[in-house]
Amino acid sequence: MFRLFLVPFIFLLVGLVVQETNGQYYKKVGNKIFPFSTIVVDQSGNGHFSTIQSAIDSIPFYNTNWVAIRVKAGIYRASPRRKSCDPTEQILHYIGRGLGKRKTIVEWYDPDGPERSPTFSILADNIHVRCMSFRNSYNNPINGNRKLRAVATTVSGDKVNFFRVAFYGYQDTLYDANGRHYYKLCTIQGAVDFIFGAGQSLFERCSISVIGGGFITAQGRESPNDTNGFVFKDCHIFGNANTYLGRPWRPYARVLFYKTNMTKIVEPSGWDSWSPDGREDLSTYAEYGNFGPGADTSKRVSWAKKLDLSTVENMANLNFINTPEEWINYQPF
């Protein structure tokens, strides 16, 4: 079994070159991009480190090499984070790869709000995470706790990419705070405002799992000139309780659901105003091309927007988050 793994690994090194693009160093074989170096995390002691935090801390500030942190299977009970040391820092590292959403799990138990409770925090730029799960278990029904804000992941860095990652919680599961982010084939679970923040983010082919009555999004756009907003493209909304698609955390909240499968759990009115103050028209809540029993827009709130096709296509496009650098093209997958 060891030999079967080793042979293709050696083969991949043939023709390998070190390449630099936009100040970022990685290895390239043909058209494929690979990390410059790899760190292994294994709780059993068969890796470079036994905790994710130790692996993250080993990467120096101002690092310009893509570093892969490969996390072996297991439940890691910790709250790893990496802070940027100043606004100009470019930390380039590739978190994961885990062995799958159900095999590599990072868990924390804390209800202390979005700044202090996250199971996992990303405060630096240029991060790629794949094939693992982050869970804040405080609101798990078996604990019998009063439901409080308990964040599974905070994302404040720019140019952050998640692939086949799961986020589990109840209230405020995913704090998509700031920056440009791409979530593909991810699972986000929760009940109340469980995707919230002022990120400029595209959620593509993601599963939105509702486990209690509430609101999927609470978007935080504060100005009509802000470029941020949430776009859900080709997603699936399902669960065991009725839900609203969103409510505005800030007055100019912007959310688009595009070609998404909406089951009957979506409330007919679609959106909630949070606290009616006559400013509902400032928000941009839109739907386009959705399907399923929850996608009927005939009873939606009067202040839901009908965007023109050009605007919809611009938002539901990778360029919504990828320009001008086309940064996703230069992340080693």
UniProtKB/TrEMBL annotation:
Source organism, top-level taxon: Eukaryota
Catalytic residues of the enzyme: 193
Enzyme Commission designation: 3.1.1.11
Pathway: Glycan metabolism; pectin degradation; 2-dehydro-3-deoxy-D-gluconate from pectin: step 1/5
GO biological process: cell wall modification; pectin catabolic process
Predominant location category: secreted
Signal peptide start and end residues: 1-23
InterPro entries: Pectin_lyas_fold, Pectin_lyase_fold/virulence, Pectinesterase_Asp_AS, Pectinesterase_cat
Family: Belongs to the pectinesterase family.
Designated name of the protein: Pectinesterase
Source species of the chain: Medicago truncatula
